[in-house]
Amino acid sequence: MTLSAEQWEKVDGKYKNLLWAISHKISGDRALSAPEDNFAELQIVALEAVAGFTKKTGRNFDDFWGEKLFDQYIKTCLWNYKNNKGARIAQRYNIHRDVVSTSMNEEVLQLEDKHGTEIDIEFYLEEVSSHFTQEQKEVLEVLVRCPSCVKVNGTINKSKIAKKLDKKWHEVDQIVQSLEGVLEQS
Length: 186
Hints:
Blueprint: H1 5-25, H2 35-57, H3 61-64, H4 68-96, E1 110-112, E2 118-120, H5 121-128, H6 134-145, H7 158-165, H8 169-185
Helix pairs in contact: 1-2, 2-4, 7-8
């Protein structure tokens, strides 16, 4: 179903403020959900809601325009879109939040100790290496030699490490967990 310009003006005139209000309520990463982009997507949802209501009821736009049932239907579609998009953003938010690329920002590899002095990461690992088991050292060596073993989101690709070390995934998982414990203590 296509709407005429006059019909779209009716929908836009009545629901424009609601569309803007909902578009501002979708929060998270501004790059993923700018209000202007959200508004445009909600306009599409409104068009789809009109087409969906037409299909469900078998009536044309002029017959149901202004009815309470249609009003509830379009508002439900808009809010459901907001909730679904917000949930998708929330799932990815912690992955992307406060993350920078170490390959593009080498200064990130410099650590600060508790006193505010900078330490080279390789020196730091050598210093605490006496706390590592042989298996932990092997995993660290693979991570240092193969940066692609660290995924874009910052997590470790345990499958790739397992293949390089000829170990099973769950073994590497246990080693990585034990490494986290050692690094937290030092």
